[in-house]
Amino acid sequence: NFKTIRDILASYLPETLRFFLLGKHYRSPIDFTADIMDESEKALQRIYECQLEAGKALERAKWKKVDLPADILKEWDEHGQGFNAALDDDVNTAQALGHIFSQVRLVNRVLEDKALRAGEGARRLLEEFFERRNDWSAQLGLFGQDPATFLLALRDQRAARLNIDVPRVQTLLDERAAARAAKDFARSDELRAALAELGVAVRDTVEGQVWDIA
Hints:
Blueprint: H1 5-9, H2 14-22, H3 34-57, H4 70-88, H5 93-112, H6 114-117, H7 120-140, H8 147-161, H9 166-181, H10 185-197, E1 200-205, E2 208-213
Antiparallel strand pairs: 1-2
């Protein structure tokens, strides 16, 4: 059994396929399944969502004189070096991706800590995060797209694959926005439930409603 690249790209974004392939050492056999491709999508989504939130955090005008804990900085340096060491070790892209995810986890840890994310230490780490992201993109061909654009394309690709009626989703979202504006929260909850039945999850943010595949 085999799948052509054309067949795969009918259901998944090109970067998802690249991520899937680089998640295996080039000397290892490749076991292609839809479940593994779905997991690749989720992994890419986590990294791009981290980029999106890190970019927003860097828009802060003022920073407090707060440094990051030594354990975070130590782990940050270790995984930065580990990424390069993995590629030097017979181009071990799977191991290199592991070091990338560890760095993303550290960035999210800082972003989730109200005391840390407003400090000068966080600013330096976030700036270095994007410098490293550029390096990852140059070497692996991953993670280099505009985060908001990529996440939107990924959502639409998943919606198409799952036969989700996007115009219907938008209609329900518009109705829900109107209900919330009218403070009709019972109707808002009903519309959230209707969206959930379509396979859609909704978050209310300062920018408005954000939906994704549940």
